[in-house]
């Protein structure tokens, strides 16, 4: 059974079924070109289509240090990003998307009969879909080993400590901070750039060997496919590498939208908003699967629900999530309904505060009848 094949192309595009109303907004949106890799024509489309002409720089189609940069959370005040249309610039923010992506009349009838289809699921690539922490840690250890081997006399102090706390700091911080403030490997700007470039190369080499997703993920995706809930995946990887990794893990058919480096999003929240647009679901009806407290904060900033996967961070660091689980095997589709069951189907929808006016006081008069 081809699960989640909601459109003609299960991975590269999402075409809603003919019996559902399609909002005209997603087909007209153009996302900003914020960071274009050199010799790569960066573009963003409203559907998760692949990039055709991707040139390579240092062996990649993205800047080498992009993978090891700590992204901003974003949307702290509901702000989004600015895109450009023929009639001028257009600001896309959380309120705008929640308003413009409202369900049409036919969609509301369909979702009344099949409420699960109204949701959109957004999965973070790192540690939620794949064990990228192991890939990154191996890349750091390989880099340290190469530095010691190539500079045996001057670089004998280069190694990755086995302390769990230090390794956690290495995996959660950006490459610049790790090299200069944690490992103290800073010997000049050019040397730092060389090590960051080599670090990304090692990561991509390890990525080619990745073929197994997080335990229980396939079974969970099978369940949401049966319920016909559209799914998206967000990552800072370039689209080509991400698609190839999904193919190796056998997950291509489950995702109808991809948000990758070519989409040019500046923050974690912007990636989530871009995924909501590609799924044609308003942010307040989306559920984000994350393992990082920063990602959970970004989801809530976008008025999305957040399901935390315990593992990389302990449960007490994920208390702000709407639901925390140890593995995907603990989830069922009914859990998604319960996330939105607090105030019925309108929970988390934007509402105007009604200010009741005090009625004018009535004067009591006594009529005397003679």
UniProtKB/TrEMBL annotation:
Pfam families (UniProt xref): HAD_2
InterPro entries for the chain: HAD-like_sf, HAD_2, HAD_sf, PGP-like_dom2
Gene3D superfamilies recorded: HAD superfamily/HAD-like, Putative phosphatase, domain 2
Signal peptide segment: none
PANTHER family to which the protein is assigned, alphabetical: HALOACID DEHALOGENASE-LIKE HYDROLASE (HAD) SUPERFAMILY PROTEIN (PTHR47858:SF2)
UniProt-recorded name of the protein: Haloacid dehalogenase-like hydrolase superfamily protein
Originating organism: Stephania cephalantha
